[in-house]
Amino acid sequence: MSIAEQLEQMWVSCETIPAEHRLDQPIEQREYLINGELRNWSGPMQTVLSPIYLRAGSEVQPATIGRYPLLSREEALEAVQAAVRAYGQGQGYWPTLPVGERIKYVEEFARRMKERRTEVVRLLMWEIGKSYPDSAKEFDRTVEYIRDTIDALKELDRTSSRFTVAQGIIGQIRRAPLGVVLCMGPYNYPLNETFTTMIPALIMGNTVVFKPPKIGVLLHQPLLELFRDCFPPGVVNTVYGEGQVIIGPLLSSGLVDVLAFIGSCRVADLLKKQHPQPHRLRSVLGMDAKNAAIVLPSADLDLAVEECLLGSLSFNGQRCTAIKMIWVHRLIADDFISRFGAQLDKWKFGLPWNEGVRLTPLPEANKPQKMAELVADALQDGATLCNRDGGATSNSYYHPAVIYPVSPATRLYREEQFGPVVPVQNFLEIDEPIRYVVDSSYGQQVSLFGSDVDMLAELIDPLVNQVCRVNINSQCQRGPDIFPFTGRKDSAEGTLSVSDALRVFSIRTLVAAKDHELNKRLITDIVRTRQSNFLSTDFIL
Length: 541
Ligand code: G3H
Hints:
The protein is of the alpha/beta class and 541 residues long. The protein is 39% helix and 23% strand. The chain is built from 18 helices and 27 strands. Strands 17-20-21-14-13-23-24 form a 7-stranded mixed beta sheet, with helices on both faces. Strands 10-9-8-11-12-26 form a 6-stranded mixed beta sheet, with helices on both faces. A 3-stranded mixed beta sheet has the order 1-5-4. The mean pLDDT is 97. The protein binds glyceraldehyde-3-phosphate. Glyceraldehyde-3-phosphate binds at residues 188-189, 193, 319-321, 477-479.
């Protein structure tokens, strides 16, 4: 069967979708959460179209999966004011609560969140086109992240529950919250990458305004009432709508203390500039990347192909950590490309719930066109399309295209494609790919493939000063979540990991006293009578 026929068959009618994955009713989400109250919106709404097209007779149309509120500036400001009130200049109920108590709130949220797994996973598939196993993994990984965050905070609290005496001064050093955090995650991990900033921000005592990404809104709806029920009023507030309408006023109000944003550096710059006192705004940013793989002549080619495939095309290449440029030594380039194409041919495409599917429809409306433009530009420069059916398109589906050789004159050489196009270039001297990494505007990760110990050792030291993770014979990736996730240059600001996130959403603060009898007696009395949450040797088991 031709690719065109296979693609045509991919779009099915609603009735043929397995019942457990079917979305019976579009979701009419009118609620938004402000100050512990789920308010009903009667203003303009945004219709959400799925990347999944459905067949009805001879027509194939994107499924309409729901609507969400397009709030105005007023509601956005109310949301941030509610967060400001709940923070109470650091004197509110939430920021002054003992750590052990805040942990209980988060534990209850996680417990109830697990009950909504089926709905959230289903919506992840319909809203962003992620395969069923990957959607389930995103949910489970997020729950696990919450559990690990709680354990890491207990550990942090235990080490802070002691006094330090140095140079005649007694001190107790702990971490305290920063204020109001604006959390904005990306569409490719709308649940996980929002929660990996929001949960640490909350558990450290900050209050939050949360705006879901433009694509990936409805999947949060099943969790809205949990935010209302599990946290005190004003601690979590949600806003929906056009970034320019609602996020601009939030930042220019000067009421946001921390911006936690995962998206493009262009938008991050726009957001940061709007704060009236930029030095007051802390930023935790995950931004653009163009991670390179470098395949050395000594590489185990089957392994390199397998990891480069996973690295470049998992979730259709829509990962900030994806391998977005492959450098292969000229001696093995032809072999690498033919094996890569052969393995890619085995990857199944289809709808997210189809058994064994890895390649799925793309959620951004113009993505297939953008991919086609990047490919056309490279082909015009003399590159060739190296895999069977590469670039075949049907509605929101774009079949991965492997393009070789991609010269510096092309857009694909430097531009982040964030989609299913795999640019490959060859090299003779190792200086060429190294220069590529050094000259890049980005500095997230790199993958090295080879078995020559001397060569690998020689490359590791210069590369760790260019990027923030050098992967050996392994694809680039964020996990495991206890590892630091960050980047240089235009790729990131701040470091995330289970334990690092607790640090970036808090500041060290201490109580100090000269070591003499009066102070010793005072401190001992305060600790013994448990009159302070801060000055305390209690620890959480
Ligand atoms: O989009 C960027 C994600 O942080 C990547 O995470 O490497 O686990 O897919 P991942």
